[in-house]
Amino acid sequence: MGQDGNEPEEARSESLRRVAVASFIGTAIEFYDFYIYGTAAALVLNQAFFPTLDPVNATLASFSTYAVAFAARPIGSVIFGHFGDRVGRKSVLVASLLLMGLSTALVGLLPGYGTLGIWAPVLLILLRFLQGIGLGGEWGGAALLAVEHAPRKKRGLYAAFPQLGPSVGFFAATGVFWLLSSVLSDDAFRSWGWRVPFLLSFLLVGVGLFVRLRISETPVFAKVMAAQEASKVPTLDVLRRHPRELLLGAGGMVVAYGLFYTATTYCLAYATGTLGVSRNTMLGLSLVACLFLAAGTWLAATRSDGAGRRRLVLAGAGLSVVWGLVLFPLLDTEQPVLIALAIGGALFCMGVVYGPMGAYLPELFGTSVRYSGASLAYNLGGVLGGAVSPLVATRLQSAFGSSSVGWYVSAMAVVSLVCVLALPETRDRELG
């Protein structure tokens, strides 16, 4: 029998497989869209859109446009969370995919500073803001799609699929840039080659829509709608009823974001710009490191059904405290194997924290506000950990050297460790 007691087991299994695929593919596409911007920001956007600034300030300006999306993500959580908690998970996920994909593709068509002048960076910031709005609604819906369909004792397993989206999206984004960087001259890459990954989003949106339009609404939310128990203003209800879970959940996410964007976006810019490591080498090493992220994510997410979400997140945060201190000494050797170890270790630690969060954050909130609560916690953590990390790291390195960036990473890990210590275990909670 299925979870509702009426659906045949074979049909139930097919439905769960479809949900797992839909949550994984949609999240992978949206994170691909998000990450190609980070890679472009580290490699080329400073010259294409801020050519009149000196190298350090141009890099800071490029990372600032990158950070805009993180500020927009909580807004997207409020907007999409409102409709996700009132109308349903499925329709909102389709809308978020469209907004994210089209905003990304338009970056690939945007003329640079030499053509549009000051309007080029202005429009770039607008499109990046819309990207953030779209992604702000994506993760919560994808996680809920998996968690609310899954049997109670397998929520960590099914939540692992949307949690793998960032790994695959990052691998695809880095792989496309690596391929283009390998086959094109430097001039061609900087002139038009960097636009190709953005334009591919037109195709990916079509794939994502095809998959997502074939899934059903989650049974947990369907019961809420049938009982007419939907929240009228979900965000306000989250702030009134779950402020502690919201803030501590956001704090728990800080190290995951901080590790990821320091180890990828910032380290890519630092290694190519300061250490002189070739762009192709760093992109290739980032591809290897991404495998560590996927391994950590899958291992921790699937183990969380038995060991508990909280215990594994605490383990990941503790490992991150240590790894922050060895990240840059390894990176500064300029040895490819040790650079891969540095970034791969950081991403593995991030995966151990991130994997269980796919089930942990949704389990902290009631069904009527779950989309809004989980999304807000997830994306507020992004503002604190992801938006500022490349900016702070750039300033710290220029003023105090690379070791100070490692201490900054460890400090973020301590913040997450303390926040998760204050949260309960949720593995055995009922979602209805």
The portion of residues assigned to helices is over 70%
User: Tally of extended strands?
Assistant: 0
Radius of gyration: 21 Å
**Number of H- or I-type helical stretches:** 19
Account of the protein in words:
It is a single chain. The protein is mainly alpha-helical. Helices cover 83% and strands 0% of the residues. The protein contains 19 helices and no strands. It has helices at 9-43, 45-49, 55-86, 89-109, 113-116, 119-149, 155-183, 186-191, 196-199, 201-212, 219-226, 234-241, 243-275, 279-307, 309-331, 336-363, 370-387, 389-400, 402-421. α13 packs parallel to α15 (309-331). The chain is globular, with a radius of gyration of 21 Å. It starts with 8 loop residues before the first helix and ends in an 11-residue tail after the last helix. Residues 1-5 have low confidence and may be disordered.
Short description:
With 432 residues, this protein is mostly helical. The protein has helices at residues 9-43, 45-49, 55-86, 89-109, 113-116, 119-149, 155-183, 186-191, 196-199, 201-212, 219-226, 234-241, 243-275, 279-307, 309-331, 336-363, 370-387, 389-400, 402-421.
Write the layout of secondary structure elements.
Elements: H1 9-43, H2 45-49, H3 55-86, H4 89-109, H5 113-116, H6 119-149, H7 155-183, H8 186-191, H9 196-199, H10 201-212, H11 219-226, H12 234-241, H13 243-275, H14 279-307, H15 309-331, H16 336-363, H17 370-387, H18 389-400, H19 402-421
Helix pairs in contact: 1-3, 1-4, 1-6, 1-7, 1-10, 1-13, 3-4, 3-6, 3-17, 4-6, 4-10, 6-7, 6-17, 7-14, 7-16, 13-14, 13-15, 13-16, 13-17, 13-18, 13-19, 14-15, 14-16, 15-16, 15-19, 18-19
